[in-house]
Design goal:
Elements: H1 2-30, E1 32-36, E2 50-55, E3 87-91, E4 99-106, E5 111-115, E6 118-121, E7 124-125, E8 127-139, E9 142-152, E10 158-164, E11 175-176, E12 181-185, E13 204-205, E14 209-219, H2 233-236, E15 244-245
């Protein structure tokens, strides 16, 4: 009798655990998912060590909304169009597995080009105003002296983009965004592998969109803390970035 009760207890606990896992997967797949920022491609908007919440329902759902991207369909359900300027998490076209986050610059049919260091969309120069602030921005294991600009997209969305003072992309080919694809770039323009690199990232299919980054809920400077420097966690916290709305 005691053994039967013990087995029942184990079974009930397993049911509870499985139920909790199913709920967690559904929340992560359909509502919100946390992401960690490991690179500097979106500085100064997003820093290495930031943890963000991404809304999964922003653009509808696809196989990439679920863990491990199960190949059950090549359609997008409850699809919603993203907005120029959105901070978008997507699966890279190169492997359809790796999560990237970039800013959406070009919509289907748009033409993107750099001319004399300025960004053009559909042959119109994007408004760019210097902040008169120079920053040292991380780029992998290196640091870049950058000039900061407030760029304004055609729909009025503003953001800060930084360019390397010692040499930046002056001129590029014309990037014509195909149907059902998007053109995305990092705010750290000279330290970002993005849609400008057609062999690595290139144009991103609509089905590859994972969600829209909306909130920053935690941040710490990984240079000051980590598994080896865990005792420095308190000094590494960026409290001013806690629960910050992203734009």
């Amino acid at each position: 009798m005691k053994m039967t009760n013990f087995k029942k207890s184990i079974l009930e606990n397993l049911k509870t655990l499985i139920g909790a896992l199913i709920i967690a997967v559904l929340i992560r797949s359909l509502i919100v998912q946390p992401f960690y920022i490991p690179s500097s491609s979106m500085e100064p908007t997003l820093l290495v060590g930031d943890r963000i919440f991404v809304l999964k329902y922003s653009y509808g759902y696809s196989k990439h909304s679920f863990p491990f991207s199960p190949n059950f369909s090549n359609m997008r359900y409850f699809s919603k169009e993203p907005t120029q300027g959105d901070l978008v998490v997507f699966k890279t076209p190169a492997d359809n597995r790796t999560d990237y986050i970039k800013r959406l610059i070009g919509l289907p049919g748009d033409e993107i080009q750099f001319i004399d260091g300025d960004l053009y969309i559909n042959k119109k120069k994007i408004k760019r105003k210097s902040t008169l602030i120079s920053n040292t921005i991380r780029c992998g294991n290196f640091f870049l002296e950058t000039a900061n600009y407030v760029e304004t997209l055609p729909n009025g969305v503003e953001y800060i983009a930084v360019y390397n003072k010692r040499g930046t992309l002056k001129n590029s080919k014309i990037f014509k965004v195909p149907k059902d694809h998007f053109f995305l770039m990092g705010d750290n323009r000279d330290c970002s592998k993005d849609s400008r690199f057609l062999d690595d990232v290139g144009y991103v299919k609509k089905i590859n969109l994972v969600g829209k980054a909306k909130f920053l809920f935690f941040s710490n400077d990984t240079n000051k803390s980590g598994l080896i420097k865990f005792w420095n966690l308190q000094s590494s916290l960026r409290t001013e970035r806690t629960f910050k709305k992203l734009k």
